[in-house]
Specification:
By secondary structure, this protein is mainly beta. The protein contains 1 helix and 28 strands. It has one helix at residues 2-13, and strands at 18-21, 25-29, 32-36, 39-42, 46-55, 61-64, 69-70, 73-74, 76-77, 87-95, 98-103, 116-119, 123-132, 138-141, 146-148, 153-154, 159-162, 169-172, 176-190, 201-217, 221-227, 232-241, 248-260, 271-284, 290-291, 294-295, 300-312, 318-331. Strand 21 and strand 22 form a beta hairpin.
């Protein structure tokens, strides 16, 4: 019972992040204009979005990112942003509760702290921000967050990220597909000749137990490189399609194999190298989860693979060895 609860809990908390599109929105408090960029990313407990601050004045503006609010929580910077070299920070002085910023090129190596975004006169800057994932509606608020060094404070109206009337659209995972498989399988072949027994079909070796994959993904098609640090398919490529059902993927691939098998008395203990096709059926089984009105892509799955490998024998002929594998799949991206 505890194991089953662990699986359900993990599948719930480890739902795959996804990228989605919201309506681009603009809020202004002259001379400041803030634009919400349309693409955002939903992670396990956070949402990542981008804001573009435009300064139409001749003054330098500062955005205190710690003062921004998304829902009931504060936002934090999600990407590094290097300050212009003409700015420096004078610690120990305060200005609206923050370190005082001055212009003058005192030191080009003095970066603005992470909590600040500096927007030069007649310019704009875009920053990626990360905030808590809460139920819709979600909006960004700017109270006491944008100010000029002359003491002026600007408060653009709140920018809604997601509302009940304008939900997210085009939700999709990252185009990069990264994951791992925990698997086991067998290779079937003919037993080596013995004085008191005739050759017969049997399991001649086992395969597994772990392989990783990385590739590209779309709603209907995927392609990936597969690597295994053990016996079985050492390296291969796969192409998959989803025939109208997002949870079901049909995969075909080809790989180069390495096995530790004993086909003849002379081959005992020697690895055999082969190659051959693979055909897989992958079914995702996550517990359905929704975030901001859209269903998250599934991360966990089960799969079954069948194929064969062409392996050279001692006599120069080529043996065809059937292979059957299956196991669990975890997608990381």
């Amino acid at each position: 019972m505890r194991c089953w609860w662990l699986v359900v809990t993990c599948s719930t908390s480890c739902a795959l992040p996804f990228v989605a599109t919201t309506q681009p929105r603009v809020s202004a408090d002259a001379p400041v204009t803030v634009k919400l960029e349309p693409q955002l990313e939903v992670e396990r407990a956070e949402v990542v979005f981008q804001l573009t601050f435009t300064n139409a004045s001749d003054e330098l503006l500062v955005v205190n990112l710690e003062a921004l609010r998304l829902g009931d929580g504060a936002v934090k910077r999600a990407s590094a942003d290097v300050a212009p070299p003409s700015l420096t920070v004078l610690p120990g002085l305060s200005f609206f509760g923050s370190s005082l910023l001055r212009v003058g090129g005192l030191t080009p190596d003095g970066p603005v702290p992470e909590r600040f975004l500096v927007v030069l006169a007649r310019s704009e800057r875009t920053v990626a921000l990360r905030g808590p994932l809460e139920a819709a509606p979600l909006e960004v608020r700017f109270h006491d967050a944008v100010f000029a060094l002359d003491g002026s404070v600007f408060t653009p109206a709140p920018l809604p990220l997601v509302t009940s009337h304008q939900p997210l659209t085009n939700a999709r995972p990252s185009a990069v597909r990264v994951g791992a498989r925990l698997l086991g399988g067998a290779i079937v072949g003919v037993s080596p000749p013995a004085p008191l027994s005739s050759p017969r079909a049997e399991v001649i070796t086992w395969t597994g137990v772990f392989e990783g994959f990385i590739g590209a993904w779309t709603r209907w098609v995927e392609a990936q490189l597969v690597l295994r640090p053990g016996f079985g398919r050492v390296v291969g490529v796969e192409v998959g399609v989803r025939p109208g059902v997002e949870a079901l993927t049909l995969l075909a691939g080809y790989g180069f194999d390495a096995y530790q098998v004993r086909l003849t008395p002379q081959s005992a203990g020697a690895p055999l190298l082969g190659h051959g096709p693979r055909f897989s059926v992958d079914f995702a089984f996550d517990t359905p989860l929704e975030a901001l009105g859209v269903r998250r892509p599934k991360r966990f799955g089960v799969f079954v693979t069948a194929g064969w490998s062409f392996v050279p024998s001692q006599g120069g002929a080529t043996l065809l060895l059937p292979i059957v594998e299956g196991g669990l799949r975890l997608r990381l991206l």
